[in-house]
Amino acid sequence: xxxxxxxxxxxxxxxxxxxxxxxxxxxxxxxxxxxxxxxxxxxxxxxxxxxxxxxxxxxxxxxxxxxxxxxxxxxxxxxxxxxxxxxxxxxxxxxxxxxxxxxxxxxxxxxxxxxxxxxxxxxxxxxxxxxxxxxx
Length: 136
Known about the structure:
Elements: E1 4-7, E2 10-17, E3 28-32, E4 35-38, E5 48-52, E6 67-74, E7 80-84, E8 98-99, E9 105-106, E10 115-122, E11 125-130
Antiparallel strand pairs: 1-7, 2-6, 3-4, 3-5, 5-6, 7-11, 8-9, 10-11
């Protein structure tokens, strides 16, 4: 499981991806040397490009080529995303937390603050705001 839009307006933009890089669908991406790569726990909010729409696998016929891929980006404030995490509790609501990797949230890390939980669905699933390009 990874990031899924729940509420709000978004659009798909087409951005260059690093050739021969596998990425899961609905993962958070950032730029490195002008091309998309997976975001990490240390990726700063202004550097988040958006949510990759489709998976990129080694079986794709254009896997090793320079190409553009669809990335979902918000077109209004306060777009709500659903995300996987571990140990999410009610006191995490409103606290800016970090990514664990490009497909999940680390609710115990608050150094970078790229996700703001707004709803606890379960201990392993939440909803909240994603700070793409440095803004909720």
